[in-house]
Amino acid sequence: MARKERDIFDLMDEWIKEMEEEFERIEKEFMRSFRSGGEGVRQFGPYVYGFRITVGPDGVPKIEEFGNVKKVKGKPMISEEREPLADVIEKDKEIKVVVEVPGVNKDNIKVKITDNGRKLIITAKSEDRQYYKEIELPAEVDEKSAKASYKNGVLEVTLQKKNVTSADSGVEVKIE
After folding, report:
1. Which CATH fold topology does 84-173 show?
2. In the chain, what is the greatest distance between 2 CA atoms, to the nearest angstrom?
3. Which one of 32, 77, 142, 158 is least enclosed by Cβ atoms within 10 Å?
4. What is the helix, strand, coil percentage profile of the chain, to 5?
């Protein structure tokens, strides 16, 4: 008996159904913890949770979560820090990272390159919100070439790729 080929739409329907079931389970557990004043659950908000699904050039779907609601040991935990949504765009000679960090002043955003130019760490704070994001870069970058700009709540960091290795110095990037 021949096996039926499944197309991307069948897979997407299946993933969406699984995510809906997981969200319902998380919501029930969250509300149970919230009502009982469970560990790690604040009695105030805002609670931010979202996800995005992308399909890479290899055809493999990737699910990325963002916000301040995390699942730890199967239970929802609320963090003071929000994980912002980020896009990493790789070109021939550069990598561009675009991160949504609304509601903060550019002077309160820190961008640091670590792990020999392989990781980007972003922290941002305002009176009512905090952001934290670690991004594994797809290629090693030249820390000194980094340029960053912040406009309308969107941080854009442009990094030049490099071919040679150097000692891990961890360089902070100035935001224009």
Report:
1. Immunoglobulin-like (2.60.40)
2. 65
3. 32
4. 20, 45, 35
